[in-house]
Design goal:
Blueprint: H1 47-70, E1 77-79, E2 82-84, H2 95-104, E3 114-119, E4 132-138, E5 145-151, E6 166-168, E7 180-185, E8 192-195, E9 203-209, E10 214-215, E11 218-219, E12 226-232
Parallel strand pairs: 7-8
Antiparallel strand pairs: 1-2, 2-3, 3-9, 4-7, 4-12, 5-6, 5-9, 10-11
Domain DUF1214: 113-210
Keywords: Membrane, Transmembrane, Transmembrane helix
InterPro entries: DUF1214, DUF1214_C_sf
Length: 233
């Protein structure tokens, strides 16, 4: 009779295995930084996909909102601190410009009426302040009529103590060369005075009616008057 010895019960260590990262198949594994709860139920298995959709919606809607409410139309025509958008309201208007005017409710001048220039900074590059005093001096191009209006940052008429916020070329005092100087101030000034007031910013709008602002080579920016800061409170 053959005796078979009993093998001792010894814990045998399993061979160690090294985890190998496979670039072709590792992407199929759950994301390490996402909670495991996202992968337990079938509905939440689309967690990363839904997260990406939410980010896309926030970025898309947010950028569209900023473009329509704080953006500026394309194809700008600049002359010093003055900026105009001659294609606004025409068949050449870009979609963003059309959407901006539709959103704000503003009606741009048609190409057969004239062109509107806006200035939100003085010649030193500082934002206009309705509580400061400015001097707008120089000439405007040959035109049938021009007006200058004081607006706030929302391009709304300023509420002034004088009950007006604009001047027009038929009521402006000029020298023998046709140059003029307009005093812009919350307080009354002698001569050409443009009243201001309030605290919601300041923008000058100069509208030139029946002006030939185009040339054979395309749009040509006219020379506009200077906007100089005189003093601030």
């Amino acid at each position: 009779m053959t005796h078979t010895p009993h093998m001792p019960l010894v814990a045998v260590r399993e061979p160690e295995t090294t985890q190998i990262f496979d670039g072709e198949t590792s992407w199929q594994k759950p994301w390490p930084h996402i909670s495991p709860l996202l992968f337990k139920a079938p509905f939440f298995s689309f967690g990363p996909f839904l997260f990406s959709i939410m980010i896309a919606l926030i970025v898309g809607i947010g950028s569209a909102y900023l473009s329509l409410n704080r953006g500026s139309p394309f194809s700008a025509l600049e002359s010093g601190v003055w900026v105009a958008h001659p294609h606004a309201g025409t068949i050449d208007s870009d979609p963003y410009s059309t959407a901006i005017f539709a959103r704000t409710g503003r009606v741009p001048l048609g190409s057969g009426e004239g062109i509107a220039f806006y200035a939100a900074f003085d010649d030193s590059g500082r934002a206009l302040d309705p509580q400061c005093n400015y001097r707008i001096a120089g000439k405007v191009p040959s035109t049938r009529l021009w007006t200058i209006t004081a607006l706030n940052n929302a391009l709304e008429l300023l509420a002034t103590d004088a009950g007006r916020a604009s001047l027009h070329s038929h009521g402006i005092l000029t020298d023998h060369t046709g140059a003029f100087a307009i005093q812009v101030s919350p307080e009354a000034r002698p001569g050409n005075w443009l009243p201001t007031g309030g605290s919601n910013g300041l923008v000058f709008a100069m509208r030139l009616y029946d002006i030939p602002y185009t040339t054979g080579a395309g749009l040509s920016a006219p020379v506009m008057p200077a906007v100089e800061l005189v003093s601030c409170k």
